[in-house]
């Protein structure tokens, strides 16, 4: 009986001491949890942003989807690609003038091409065009920044053969077929920097492996290796 009485008296004291100890610990270490969160959140955010910046240009051509076009296998159709290039050269505004491609040029497997060209009269201007259902659209003005160096992102159309897209696509698809989970190419593009052209995509992503692939200007294979 005496033991029970002693326990009933001591228990509240014990609980009170525990609460006091906890309060003291929290008083001297109030920011441990906050500091830990502050460390974790920025690191995750930076990592995510870095991944996005690194993969955006690589994945754009692989993730772009469109359903308007009816032409499939355009990327491997040499005749259709050549037809599109010839139609571009025959645009009346460029009659007797050299055509310069600006910055980027996209090819989509459903039969569409998006291209930016230096203006035929004012070299400081750039127009965008779309090739769709076998015809080029009217030019649409591209808004440029004063910081854009147009001259460094130009290349003569003669250095970009549309038919070379078929070479690139055939090579890419052959390699992709050998990689588990990799998908055939649905779009490709040229990026122009310092007056040099660069073909994309530059990676093949499988479900278990990732490969780096580089192409020469004519669409032939330059290098292929596992990352």
Commentary on this structure:
The chain is an alpha+beta fold and 227 residues long. The chain contains 4 helices and 11 strands, in the order H-H-H-E-E-E-E-E-E-H-E-E-E-E-E. Strands 1, 2, 3, 4, 5, 6, 7 and 8 form an 8-stranded antiparallel β-sheet that branches. A 3-stranded antiparallel β-sheet has the order 9-10-11, covered by helices on one side. A hairpin with a 5-residue loop joins strand 10 (210-215) and strand 11. The chain starts with a helix and ends with a strand.
In a few lines, what is going on in this structure?
By secondary structure, this protein is an alpha+beta fold. 37% of the residues lie in helices and 25% in strands.
List keywords for this structure.
about 230 residues, single chain, alpha+beta, eight-stranded antiparallel beta sheet, about 35% helix, three-stranded antiparallel beta sheet, about 25% strand
């Amino acid at each position: 009986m005496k033991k029970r009485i002693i326990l009933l008296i001591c228990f509240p004291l014990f609980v009170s001491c525990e609460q006091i100890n906890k309060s003291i610990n929290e008083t001297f270490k109030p920011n441990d949890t906050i500091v830990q969160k502050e460390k974790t959140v920025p690191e995750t955010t930076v990592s995510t942003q870095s991944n996005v910046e690194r993969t955006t240009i690589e994945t754009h051509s692989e993730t772009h989807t469109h359903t308007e076009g009816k032409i499939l296998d355009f990327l491997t159709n040499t005749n259709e690609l050549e037809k599109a290039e010839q139609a571009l050269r025959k645009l009346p505004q460029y009659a007797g003038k050299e055509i310069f491609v600006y910055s980027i040029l996209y090819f989509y497997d459903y039969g569409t091409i998006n291209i930016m060209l230096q203006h035929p009269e004012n070299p400081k201007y750039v127009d965008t065009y779309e090739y769709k259902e076998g015809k080029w659209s009217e030019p649409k003005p591209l808004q440029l920044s004063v910081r854009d160096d147009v001259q460094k992102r130009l290349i003569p159309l003669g250095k970009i053969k549309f038919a070379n897209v078929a070479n690139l696509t055939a090579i890419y698809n052959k390699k992709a077929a050998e990689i588990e989970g990799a998908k055939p190419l649905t779009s490709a593009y040229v990026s122009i920097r310092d007056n040099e052209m660069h073909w994309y995509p530059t990676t093949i992503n499988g479900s278990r492996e990732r490969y780096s692939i580089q192409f020469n200007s004519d669409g032939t294979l330059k290098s292929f290796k596992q990352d």
